[in-house]
Amino acid sequence: xxxxxxxxxxxxxxxxxxxxxxxxxxxxxxxxxxxxxxxxxxxxxxxxxxxxxxxxxxxxxxxxxxxxxxxxxxxxxxxxxxxxxxxxxxxxxxxxxxxxxxxxxxxxxxxxxxxxxxxxxxxxxxxxxxxxxxxxxxxxxxxxxxxxxxxxxxxxxxxxxxxxxxxxxxxxxxxxxxxxxxxxxxxxxxxxxxxxxxxxxxxxxxxxxxxxxxxxxxxxxxxxxxxxxxxxxxxxxxxxxxxxxxxxxxxxxxxxxxxxxxxxxxxxxxxxxxxxxxxxxxxxxxxxxxxxxxxxxxxxxxxxxxxxxxxxxxxxxxxxxxxxxxxxxxxxxxxxxxxxxxxxxxxxxxxxxxxxxxxxxxxxxxxxxxxxxxxxxxxxxxxxxxxxxxxxxxxxxxxxxxxxxxxxxxxxxxxxxxxxxxxxxxxxxxxxxxxxxxxxxxxxxxxxxxxxxxxxxxxxxxxxxxxxxxxxxxxxxxxxxxxxxxxxxxxxxxxxxxxxxxxxxxxxxxxxxxxxxxxxxxxxxxxxxxxxxxxxxxxxxxxxxxxxxxxxxxxxxxxxxxxxxxxxxxxxxxxxxxxxxxxxxxxxxxxxxxxxxxxxxxxxxxxxxxxxxxxxxxxxxxxxxxxxxxxxxxxxxxxxxxxxxxxxxxxxxxxxxxxxxxxxxxxxxxxxxxxxxxxxxxxxxxxxxxxxxxxxxxxxxxxxxxxxxxxxxxxx
Length: 716
What we know:
Elements: E1 2-6, H1 9-18, E2 24-25, E3 28-31, E4 34-38, E5 44-46, H2 49-52, E6 73-75, H3 87-101, E7 107-111, H4 116-128, E8 134-137, H5 145-152, E9 156-157, H6 162-190, E10 191-192, H7 204-220, E11 225-234, E12 240-246, H8 256-266, E13 270-283, H9 291-301, H10 307-319, H11 338-349, H12 390-405, E14 411-422, E15 430-440, E16 464-476, E17 483-484, H13 485-493, H14 504-510, H15 522-531, E18 535-538, E19 541-544, H16 546-554, H17 563-577, H18 583-603, E20 610-611, E21 623-624, E22 631-634, E23 638-641, E24 651-653, H19 657-660, H20 668-677, E25 680-686, E26 692-701, E27 708-713
Parallel strand pairs: 1-4, 1-7, 7-8, 10-20
Antiparallel strand pairs: 2-3, 3-4, 5-6, 8-9, 11-12, 11-16, 12-15, 13-14, 13-16, 14-15, 17-19, 18-19, 21-22, 22-23, 23-24, 25-26, 26-27
């Protein structure tokens, strides 16, 4: 009997389906020679400092740095009470342990995600529960039945994955050491009041610094005027075209007077077509998606999306077998996937109105082992979705379209460049005109990408034209734009370097390990920066808050803001995965850094970065519950009974659908009236025809069930 441990219940269901196991027990599937069980991501977490030493239960500067001689694990904490273990995790661990000890189980297979985090999740459970049985690894890029069965035929010994485990453990322990020590010491040193903490993290701070630097660039930007000269030329047959004056390859000039003088000289003069170049150019489709590019594409195209949300939706599609592994940095596919990809492409193209234009072929632009790191780019699987939510549809369509684009004809444009010189004038420059016409739409058909054609009249070299008008225009330099999630993800991926993803050398540099975080953690980092109040979103833009600025200005450990420092740590972990860097060396370096940083902070001057008021918020009681008599209070989503934990279901939802039909939402005043008088006057309700009216609203319990319904009375 073989025991398979999956990372999530949904993945274990995919494995069980592939093995045709119908028998589900409490916490596992069993049948056909296999037991398939699951985790819920991390079931174990590292011990808190106070678990090692009681004195660490209270934060005191003299107790830091705190570096355990040996790291230990415990059941992950309950989300609502950090001092208690999560009951679901505790129960599932016991089930896994019991299954591992079964006498008929001779082999254990870790089927967690094929990355260092997945390795850590599986190994922390299996080895902390202790087993002498042989452990193997199921390494898959998708959870389709064919891949699962094929993967089970090609298992690898888990011992071979030791470098991946080392990298996962080192990342976890390093983040614990830096996070626990520096967050605690920074909070003690720079915060007044209790109840919150100043979060300090290896990936948080350099990401914050990227946004801080852009904000500073915008603030210190001094706009300057510059000038352009543009002329209109008439041909003999009455056609016209515009030309921009360019001198020494420069189109923008600081002197308005200089251009005004040129303007006077050339107005009404004849000119000659000095040169004309016509070039046909090929436009290739953008590369296949990795996670960062997918997040950037979706967040910039659709409103209301964040990088974190894109990852969650993509993860859902992956677990439903519709796409390949999403947490990838690669923009190409492994060469071994050529025949499989051909089948997927043919399947996806079958219903397209231009399916005859989709022709599969193999090219290094798409299939290249050098451009693949651990996981190939994200593409659909052969399992076609039957029903998707709107959000899943948007992400799936983007991934599907990006794959199909690769096998459509290359788009072609014709670019024309005309150089016009003024007769009888010895100008230092000349007038340049550029035009562009789309000859072949090609892959742009898939997303209906419109090209802006700039048509030019037919002119020949040596032809004489007339300068009918010349105008000097004033322009102002613009500050750099605030970061969006798309631009921030790009800089995190490239460790602050502005690379061109179409350049092969740049692609390989991205894959060499220098980055801020990993594809899997970048979205989480941005979300956390928002949650802890260091940055905020303004529409699609990200900016520093006052607190975030004070952190950057005051916190003395400047290495943590340095992109190269953090990129080097990520590079070390990357090399560790390859067996090229020592776990012991890495952790010693982190320990030394942490100890040194703690001492530096202790010796700094006392400054207040954050002041926390400990005034307790009093919850306003709006009235008595009509069901049980307890207090009704306001919550995030509604006005409900405070006795809900004991089963009282009285609530008035803030997004109440009945009131929404009349363009109204319940207010505190309305709820107070209802609870005190049994009814509340409401003004400005809107009828289906758009007319406004007033009514007396009642919220009464239904006779045949425990729910409440609205009733209206109209004043005479």
